[in-house]
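stage 2 :: seqdesign
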């Protein structure tokens, strides 16, 4: 016998309902592809600025500075992109779209998951654009397939974690500005990490914060994978941060969504 949800919709419909709503969201993205390009513009501008203006004054190993810089830029790309997730979800909430979906015979959570999966696809496209520009700037990696799969896996996990964080203001904000403003601290966080310079060059308190905040372990892991170096304990710290943030944000977002759907 098929188990049913509280509104009588078979749980087996969840996948098909989510797929339909995800196609709807992706269609909107395709019609306004400039949002993906805009998401990539700021990280690309930062990469150009740091490599061609500040790169000569920064000591960060023997390889090209773009190789050192790219992992942090990729995280900034994700942090920039998730603001659009919060914005699109806020618009659907305020426009009554989500309320309309809840009145239809579809899985309640499908609308939420559609936004999450759309965010994942859009951010991966933005990441690909940034990597493409980095290659033009001289980025090179001898990493094999397994290392690149590891990089992709961490970026996907990081994107999902921050996307569920973005869902919370998307559901609770009272204005468009409030829905997207939460991303600014997330964009700023890589600047106080090993993303741009080694943490050893920082003064005491700043260095302590930089070494123990989540971005540093994630950046170090990505950098080691791309450079064909040992990831050490950083990979476990990075995974713990990503999974921990993902679980906490998911639980909070689902609780808020259920309360609003009640």
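stage 2 :: out
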């Amino acid at each position: 016998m098929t188990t049913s949800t509280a509104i009588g919709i078979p749980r087996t419909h969840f996948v098909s309902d989510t797929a339909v709503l995800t196609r709807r969201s992706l269609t909107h993205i395709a019609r306004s592809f400039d949002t993906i390009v805009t998401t990539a513009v700021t990280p690309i501008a930062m990469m150009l600025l740091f490599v061609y203006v500040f790169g000569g004054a920064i000591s960060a190993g023997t390889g090209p500075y773009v190789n050192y810089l790219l992992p942090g830029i990729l995280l900034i790309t994700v942090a920039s992109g998730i603001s659009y997730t919060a914005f699109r979800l806020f618009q659907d909430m305020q426009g009554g779209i989500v309320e309309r979906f809840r009145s239809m015979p579809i899985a309640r959570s499908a609308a939420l998951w559609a936004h999450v999966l759309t965010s994942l696809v859009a951010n991966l496209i933005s990441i690909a654009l940034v990597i493409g520009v980095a290659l033009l700037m001289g980025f090179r990696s001898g990493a094999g397939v397994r290392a690149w799969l590891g990089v992709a896996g961490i970026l996907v996990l990081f994107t999902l974690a921050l996307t569920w964080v973005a869902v919370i203001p998307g559901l609770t904000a009272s204005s468009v500005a409030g829905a997207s403003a939460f991303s600014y601290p997330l964009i700023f966080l890589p600047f106080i990490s090993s993303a741009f310079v080694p943490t050893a060059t920082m003064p005491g308190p700043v260095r302590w914060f930089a070494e123990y905040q989540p971005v540093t372990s994630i950046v170090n892991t990505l950098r080691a994978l791309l450079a064909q170096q040992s990831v050490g304990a950083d990979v476990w710290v990075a995974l713990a941060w990503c999974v921990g943030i993902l679980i906490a944000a998911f639980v909070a977002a689902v609780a808020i969504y259920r309360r609003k759907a009640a």
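stage 3 :: structure notes
- The chain has one domain: 13-261.
- The chain has eleven helices and no strands.
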